[in-house]
Structure formats: C-alpha cells, structure tokens
Amino acid sequence: MNAIKETSKNFFVRNQKEIFYIILYFVLPWIIFGIGYNLMEYLLAPGDGAIAGYPLRQAISEYSFWSPYTQGGSYLAREGSAHCLYLPALLIMNIFPNVFGYNFLLLIHYSFAGIFTYLFLKELKIKQIAAFFGGLVFMFSGFLSAHLGHINMLCAAIFLPAVLLVIEKYVQHKKIIWLLAGALFFMLTITADYWAMPFYIGMVGLPYLIFRWICVGREEGQKARTIVWQIVKTFSIIYIGGLLLSAFYCLPIFQAFQYTTRGNLTFEVFASYGFPAYLFPTLLFPYIFTYSMNTFMFYGPWNNTELFGYMPIFVLIFAAVAILCLRKKNVQIWFWTILAVFAFILVLGDNTPFYKLAYQVPGYNMFRAPGRNWYEVHFALSILFAFGLNAIIGANKEKREKFFKAAIKTSVVIGVLAVATIIVLFSLRPIMSQFLGTDIVLPNFVYTLNDIAEYFVRNMNFTNPAVYIPIIIILLCIIWCIFGKKYGWTRVTSGIFAGILLINIFYYGHWVYGAPTQPPVETPVLSYLKEEGGDANQYRIYPMDDQPGVSPMGNMINKLNVINTYSTVPMRDYATLTGLSSFVADDPELLVSRVNLLSAMGVKYIVTNNSEYKEFIKSVYPSYSEGNNLVGDSDGWDILTGEFLQDSFKLESGEDNYSLMQTEIPLKKYTNYKISFLAKGITDVQMFADLFAEGYDQDAQQLDISVAQSDDFERYSFTLNSGDCPSRVMLRIGIQGLGAVEVMDVSLRELVPNETAAYEKVFEDEEGNTIYYNPQWVNRAHFATEILPVSDIEEVNTAFSPLSDIDPQTQALVEGIDQTENMGNGSVLQEDYSDADAPKFKVYIDGQKGFFVLSDTYYTGWEVYVDGVQTTIYKTNGIMRGVFVEGEGEHTIEFRFVPGSFYKGLVVTFIALGGLIAVVFLQRRKNGKKTN
Fold this sequence. Notes:
Blueprint: H1 2-14, H2 16-34, H3 48-60, E1 66-67, E2 74-75, H4 76-79, H5 87-95, H6 99-123, H7 128-139, H8 142-146, H9 151-157, H10 159-173, H11 177-191, H12 196-220, H13 224-245, H14 247-256, H15 267-270, E3 290-292, E4 295-298, H16 304-307, H17 313-326, H18 331-347, H19 354-358, H20 374-392, H21 397-427, H22 429-433, H23 449-459, H24 465-487, H25 491-509, H26 524-532, E5 540-543, H27 555-558, H28 572-578, H29 588-593, H30 595-600, E6 603-608, H31 611-618, E7 624-629, E8 638-640, E9 642-644, E10 649-652, E11 658-666, E12 672-681, E13 685-692, E14 702-707, E15 714-721, E16 728-736, E17 740-753, E18 760-764, E19 770-773, E20 781-784, E21 786-790, H32 793-799, E22 811-815, E23 821-822, E24 825-832, E25 840-846, E26 849-854, E27 862-866, E28 869-871, E29 874-876, E30 880-886, E31 889-897, H33 900-931
Parallel strand pairs: 5-6, 21-22
Antiparallel strand pairs: 1-2, 3-4, 6-19, 7-17, 8-11, 9-10, 10-17, 11-16, 12-15, 12-17, 13-14, 13-16, 18-19, 20-26, 21-23, 24-25, 25-31, 26-30, 27-28, 27-31, 29-30
Protein name: YfhO family protein
Keywords: Membrane, Transmembrane, Transmembrane helix
Transmembrane segments: 20-40, 100-121, 128-144, 150-167, 176-197, 237-257, 269-289, 309-326, 333-355, 375-395, 407-428, 465-483, 495-513, 902-922
C-alpha cells in the first residue's frame, strides 16, 4: 500500500505542470464563454444551438430511436443532427438531462480540443509551455469560438488533433495500437453528426500521413514500396476502419437517402458564405461590422459565424516567426504553411476562380459554406504559432535576437495594416452616409442599405470598443516583443505574454455571440395548450411561425407534437404532400386551406402571429358553392401572338417564345376563387393561368400545366385565395416556350362558403399570438369506415387538394389495395404512447373487419402486431400507417420500431472492431517473434 502511495505521489510530482495545464484546459472554457452568466439556467446555445441543439439533446436524454414530436414522427438516427448515436452526448445528457448537461457537453469538447492539440504538439517535440499555448489558441480559435452554436460541428471538429496525434505516434513508435485508437477517434468524428467535418479532417490527415511517412522513410532509408505500404496501412485502419466502426450510425443515414429530399448542391449553394475581400478588416478588428460588441448583430454579408476568421495577434506574430526563421530547418513548417494557404484559398469561395474546380471534387462538393475552411487555416496557424513560440523559449541570445527581430517586424507590419485599415474605413464614412434612407436589401445581406450605412457611420469612431480594443491589443503585442528581445522568455515576460493572450482571447471569444440564451419559458400560448388542449399525445399542432416553447423545436422540450420541424433531411413524401420541406411551408396558405389533410394528420390547433396568415385563416371554409362567372365574353380579352376563333382562342408563341391572353376582372380580398378552362394542345406545350397586378404576383396564384397534343379538349381548374389583392386584377392564360394551344370556356367564379369558417379562434395573447381550433381534427389513432385505393403520393396529393370531398374522419387513402371497401366501425379504447418505439392500443371492432389508422409517419423498420400476430402495415394517406383488424370484439394493436439498418450496422461495427483488434494482436505477436 505504501508503495502505491509513493508511486502516486511521484507521478503527481513529476507531472505537476502537465496536470496544471490539463486543469486549465477544463476550467478556461467556463471562464471565457460563461463568466458572468448562470450556466445552470442559461444556454451557451446561440442561433442553431437554441433552435435545434438543446431540444435535440433533450430528446436523446430519454433515449428512443423514434421521436413522435416532429413531422408526424421521425427516426432520430436519420436526422444526422441529433447526437442520438454519439456516445459522449448520450452519456452526458443521460446523467445531466438539463441546461447544465448541454453546457457541460459543449464546453468539455472545447477542453479536449486543447488537450488533443497539446498532446500532438508535444509529440512533435514542442516544449511543454509552447505546446500548452498552442492547444489554447486552437481551443479558442476564431472558428471554434464562432461555432459555439453549432454543437455537432464543434464535437466533430475536436478530433483533428486526436487523429494527427495517433498518426504521429504510429509513425514514430510503430505500435499498431495507435492505429486502432485512430480508428476509434475517426468513428467518434463521424458519429458526432456533422458529415462535412470527417471530410475536412481527411483533407488534413491524409496529406499529413503521406508527408510524415515520406519524411520518416527517407530518414530510415526505407524502400518506396515500404513507404507506400505504410501509407496504405495507416489510411486503411484509421479512415476505412473508422468508417466501418461507425456503420451503426452510417447505415440508417444511407438508408434514409431514398426517402429524403436532400440532393446535390447547386454551385450557388455550394459557394454561399465565401469570405469576400471587403471583410479583410475583420481579421484585425473582429467586431468592426457588428452593431455593438456585446450584441450579435453582424451587418456584413451572410453572417459572422461562418465568416469569422480572427485569431489572436500573437498567433499571427509567432506563426510568421516560424515561417520566416524555421522553414529551412524544419520541414513541418512547410507542410502547415502550405495547408494554411490552400485552406485560405478555399475560404474565399467563389471570389476566386479556383472554387469552381473545387466544385468538381467528389465528396467536397456535397458541403456548402467555404468560410468553414477557416477550421483548417486556424489549426495550421495554431501549429505554426507553437513552433514559433517554441523557438524563442530557451534560445540563446543570438538566436533570441533573430527570432524577436522577426516578431517585432511582423507586429509592426500588423500595426501598420491596422492603422491603414482604420484610415480607409473612416474615410468611407461620407460615402456611406449618402446611402442613409435607402431601403434596399443587398444580396446575401440581412439589413437594408440604410441600416448598414447607419451602423457603419456610427461605428467608425475611436470611442467604439470594436476599434480601440484591437488597437490596444496590437500595441501591447508590439511592446511585449520589444521587451522580449531584451529580456528573453522569463517568468515575468511569460506571465505578461499569457495575460495579453488571454485578454485577446476573452475579447473576441466571450462576445462572439453576445449573451447566452434562456431556455424556452412558459408563454401564454404554451399555457393554453397545456391547460386546454387535452391529451397532447392525441393531436398535433401547426405553428406557422416562431412560437417559444412550441416551435421551431421547443415542442420537444414540452412534449408537444407538431407537423413541422427544423430538419436538415426532410422526408420526400411528407414534403410533397404538405410542402413542409423546412420549418416554413413552401406555401403556408395552401396548406391551411387543405383542411381535410390537416385534419387527417391530427392537427387540432394552428398557431400564428402573422397578421396576413390570420386574415387568410378566417377566409378558409370547409365547403363552398360556385358563384357567377366573372369572366365576360370574348370582347373583353386582349390577346398577344394569337387569334380569336369562332368559339375559342388560339395561342401560338411568337419570336419571344411567349403568348398571352388576358382580361380584367374585379376581385375581393381574402376570398376563394376557382379558375377553370378547356384546353387542347395543337402541339405539346407548357401553359399557365394566373392572377396579376402591379405588386400582386405570387406563386400561389398561378397554375402551371403541361398540355399534350390532342384532338380533344380537356378541362383544367384550380382554386386560390385572393389574399391582399387590389380591387381589379388581370386574369391571364398563356404559354411559355414554343408551341400552340386552343383555349375555350374560361371561367372565374367566387366560391361562396356554405358553412361556418373551418377554423375557430380560441385564444390570443397581448402580443398577438393566436390559436385557432380545427373542429374537424381526427385523433392520432382512429378508424376509417371507407378505404379508397391510390397508387402513389401524387395521387394522394391530388385527392387532398383544397375543397376536395375527402372526409378524413371516415375515409382513408390506402396503397396496396385494389378497390374501395367499406369497413366496420371501430373505436379506440386505450392509447399508450409511453414508449415512442412501441405505442400500444386496445380497440373494439363492430363488424367483421376494421381499418385502424395511426397518423404517424410511415417509415421502414416499423412492425405491427394485432393480438400478438405480426401483420402488414399499409401506407395510408401518403405518409401514415394503416392496419386491417379482423374479427368483431376487442383487440390489441402494438407497433414496434425495429430499425434494421441500425442493427445491421451494429453487426458491421462489431465485426470491424473484432477485425481491428485481431490485426493489432497479430501484429504485436509478429513483432514479439521478431524480437525473440
């Protein structure tokens, strides 16, 4: 026992500095990001972190594969953002399923970013103190600090130094156990749920392992064949092995591709968030284009998160020292310099022609936002900084003077650039003031030109902290370099260095997002839904705009089911039917007008704060009668490149591939109308019909159709709501492209409501947040007494068009049946949703056969058991689940979610793990025999 105590004591004595550094790595993130805030109650979750990060982490704290809360239910593993299979998140959020747990998960990843970088630098023979500062500046690099709100990205990003560490360990020591560790690190990178990051890590790691094996191979006199084999082995075990280890995570996502809408990015989307030249001032003055230093209101292009390229001034100075003074002695300097330059070119995006070539690179072209390549730039600068700092620590007087001369020159150049930047920016104030009062929104900007000019003119003065604090920091760095040249690296100078560096880090790190976010609080809307809504498991809500605690994803915290979500991979059929390819519907008013569809989905309440939406909701009725035709005779029509026939109009495109007929009609605001006409294609042609006036031209008011060449007329019609229209508009029918068509019997009729409005206003708070009740809503679990056959989602979409006669309370559209059938009446006696992966029901059938509908998402992996016997799930209403129940009387129905892709992936993971362990064992055994 005494020997153990003595050994422990000796360990702590020998490693007291390292232990102190590790403790600092764990403590500093809480200070830099959290000082002054109660992190037990406030989230370090700005932007996406507050919208999706925290709610999704709450979802995994009560872990199940399936979440019922969004889009009719969703498989969390296919979302690629929930962390539902990321082991650190699962562990932490199940121990601390609260605000503290989220903050702890976030900040501990900053700590490990520093620790992994520190260990990597030590492996490169960097002195302990220089390695510590190198880890510190990467931990609080501009990229990682700015992405505080992107928890998935952050969790994945920290493993770059970990992967490089194991590569370096293996290259130097040839112990294959390090490659197994590398595969595990790469697996964690992948399962951290940000797919671009493993690619970025591969962009650095693969060139690095090639570079290192070439260097070591030459030093050791290895043959080219041996070097190539080592490169292949290292790559295969770390990257391919890591991918196979993550199969339990990857296969569900790969499987989801066939059901989702996400496709290839256009070049415009791929190149969005590139770093333009006019943002170069932010590299020295990070907040020069923000409303104020403690308010996250960036008035530059895109947003500050993706474009934040700032690094501490000392990093720039000592990275330059490494490049200027060490490049001839250490080939590592060349590698990291080339990487920094290459990544910076990528950061510029389509501001250089090079990025069009990058778009052709398979894999890389799947990810947008070139500004995210600041990640590689900042990591490379952190490594160069550590090399530069390492050179001056303990250097003799001659070398010290050489290194500090380079540092002084660099710091002075930075100072001159800072002064020049301020002179140029201040000189632009008169020019920018000319744009005051100009309410134009520039492409990729959030604010109007007037707002930008106002903020710019106000901010360009020396009382602005965004101006004078960076200047003070630069001056302090210059002064330190001058004194450092004289006194060297001593306790005093190193302490001052640490102080200046931490002040610099705190300056940009603490305020990069402003104040932390408060979790969703109880609102009047939320209180009403909880108190008056009844059993929240039985219905869904359609929030048309942001509602704290309800949407975009606050509902997950409050256990409310909504039909929209903040999803990166929306389901294709769901998006087709509802238009909800993102949180906001493609056409919200169209979705609201489809009363039968929302009712079938179980939507009991609609919530909105938008005045236009409210006006529209009041105008929606469940059924209508057609009024008089508002279209006059042929004399009222104007026709372009066409002609009047005896009983019809002929439209034929002219030289501009366009033909149009139009007539003026009176229109009422927020009124439903039906447009109808007969058309016969003289050739195949693309037609459109719409309502148009100056300032009144929306997609929802237009019908686009393809008319095939035919000898017979076919009727086309569609309904629309006039919205906030002028009193007189033009009804237009035309063709686009080459072709000709004959049109007749055109009508536009007002749809006069037969009943009361479809939605009933039941609540409104002082801020105008309004809840509408849908009396026709159908319980999430119910029976249909009539089932109708359909073939695909398009047929379902047509059947659920506005004003269709589908009755969601009694009818269901079912794929896989041949004919319409009447079913027996059924009732749901008990509903048990306590296990999201296995909802259970007790039902009663009055008749020989019933059809049970659960309005949850139809998705592969679901099984159903009726009275303990597995039976078939039918795709119902395009996106739901339906089950036949045979025999009169009581029955039990149990759904079970068994995601085969996950379990198959888990098998692959265990096989890969076993294979990698076997490789390690065999290699060690082989090495042991060689030693013997």
